[in-house]
Amino acid sequence: MLRELNDGQVRGGGDPFIGPKLEPYLREAGFTRIDARRPLIRGDASDAVFFQGFIDEFAEIFESLDEALGHKPEHDAAAAELRRLNRIPGAFMTYQGVIAQAWK
Fold first, then answer.
1. What is the pTM of this model?
2. Residue 10: which domain range?
């Protein structure tokens, strides 16, 4: 499912893997002070409110795939399965993005 999402982003002119490329691009653009971090975000039952929001955010991404890729039942199934994650004992979800700041 994520491969489909990535492929759709590429077809639309985006780069789903831009995060690790940010620091070199910023240097090339003339920025001299760069702070690029890759925080690991984890959701689990220890913070049920955050976990639910985290789940909802990614489920909504799957639910919106029809806008870019056309409606497919497996998108809805993936979102529904993800929304059940918080009911599974010991379940967790992680995401690692990139946060970058740069100054000239």
1. 0.74
2. 2-103
